[in-house]
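Known limitations

Files may contain more than one protein. Parsers should not assume a single record per file. Below, a two-record file is shown to illustrate correct handling: read the sequence, read the token line, then continue until end of file.
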Amino acid sequence: MKKLLAAFLLSTFPVFTSPVKADFGDADFPIDLFKNSPQSYHDGWCRFIKNKCRIRFQGKAMWVEGQGGIYLSQFENYRYDTDKGDGHNLVVGDRGEYYNYISYRSENGGLKEALFLFAKHKAQRNFSMAFMRWVEQKPEPTRNYRFPNSQGPQDTQGRDKGLNPYDNEPITDWSIKTTKESPAGINCDSAVWRNKPQCID
């Protein structure tokens, strides 16, 4: 009987010693991804409507791709406004244009102001969250963190075309542009053209 019991225990022992995942396993968050945080990119308009630009946050820097930017030490003030328009033809959740005014000290010490606009409520919300995260230099993940999808406001669900900043090395050259111009006579932002070959990289 004792031999039978020993044999049974030995046969079941591997079940209890099978490999298990360390710590919390699948629940463990890849927190090391945030060592260079905050990082995000946002497609909006610069200074006036339809003047498309891509705004990036990375560490203590904020910049417009291909143009220039500032460091947190140059930031002075932020104010926000919205133009609700006449209320007609607005998609639910969109309330007109959103205006983000950022005052800063230029390299020569003069006070300047930049304007960033968004037409979509979700894009504005994600930009303002990223901006406050940048100002406070909070490295922890936030609820709009989407991995490995887009960190931008466009919620591309994995079709970010390699732009997720947490999948790439930190950017050191602000002159690099990752935006593409629409072919002549085509609006790649429109529902008609968005998925056509001419508008896909």
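...continuing to the second record:
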Amino acid sequence: KVRPIAKTDKKENDEIITQELPQITPDMLPKEIRHWVQDVCERIESPIGVGAVTALTIIGNLIGNKVGIRPKAKDDWTVIPNLWGMIIGSPSVKKTPIYSELYKAVAKVEFEEHQKFENDMKAYRIEQDKYSTDKKKRKESEPPLEQPTKPQKKRYATSDGTIEAIAEIIKYNPNGILQTRDELSGFLKMMDKAGKEGDRAFYLEGWNGTNSFSVDRIMRGSTYIPQLTLGVLGNIQPSVLKEYIYEAVQGKRADGFIQRFQLALFVEPIKQNGVDRYPNTTAKDEFFELIKKIVEIEHFRECEDDPYKNVSFYRFENEAQTLFNNWYKDNYEEAQNAPNEALEGHLNKYPKLICSLSLIFHISEIVSSDNNIASVSKENFNRAYKIVEVLKAHAYYLYSTLEREDAQKEEMHDKIEAKIKELHQQSKLPMTFGAISQLIRGAKAKDVEEVSKSVAKVKGKKIISLLASNV
């Protein structure tokens, strides 16, 4: 199966932008998510895809490892819906304001948790003082006193922190946590530093969401996490992402780190109309209630419990199961025929994506109604399928960066060579590299210098004449 590469165009600053890539549309989201996401994006005047990726990453990681989905009808393979989201675009798409507005639903819950934590700490201090007093009075013949347990604050996201600090947070928040980064470039650079191999392994395991992990440090000892579940959400500019895609395509980083950003979406700024209207409070209340319930529920209705005390789970209903089975085979064949191994690795991670999205939609449906729905429906699978198809087109575009650049370099080489020959025929040489580059749209002096090595005689920074073999 061959997918056409999206058409491209050039900006004045020589940066490649997307054209004719499919986009996420409101109808792809369930109403419990759609109404507020759409309202926020319309008022802030940002593409709906920015809100969709943000909301889906937040919700998937709030569910975390509390419940999973078993994609096969009988097998115990379990998918945890923690997702990594990457919004690829310029600052003009207003990624940060969208995140800030959508995260307010979580922030409200965190504020309530903080108030409870403060009250629990007051009670703890009183109990601790009493314990200290009673301990001094206790006789050796008496049974030991039970020391009060220090309360821990609930956390759902963090914007920074070492893996030791994150491991400590997860120890008291075992369902998982979301790492948010306003700019992913710093996060990716940190992962590339020498001596950070342990950090990279920490995040790789955290993406799986099902494996245990130990963080060992000489001064802090060892922190054991029975089920490391991590999400990542952030923004990045296309020009910055390019070097990481190059490494992935060239196989310099073959661990699939960049491919774990399955919710990777290119977005372009939209026309600004100066929208100024009141928020849709009904949609806001609906979304805030959804987030509150997902956070508070420890055991979702109608899910199955694993007999070995692993993650509880849902399965697909019969029709959805058939659709998934067919999609799974098609996706595998498509990955096998991918133009490079980096894209192949990306597509091979899509089963987790489509199952996670299906589960997120299922959870959104059951917590917002009184219906006891035991299996993930065909409708929710189809919603997930539509979003995955959009993301696939963006993945093809993303991993074809090198092919596009090679074609553009070859085209520029031909233009420069033709211009040098034209100038020679018009007896306008010698000319400097810079002067010639001004005559060719998009060319730079260093491009002209590179081409001139094979077609012209050069002195200093000037082209003197054409080589005899090229006249």
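Parsers that stop after the first record will miss the second one. For reference, the second record is described as follows. The first strand starts at residue 7 and ends at 10.
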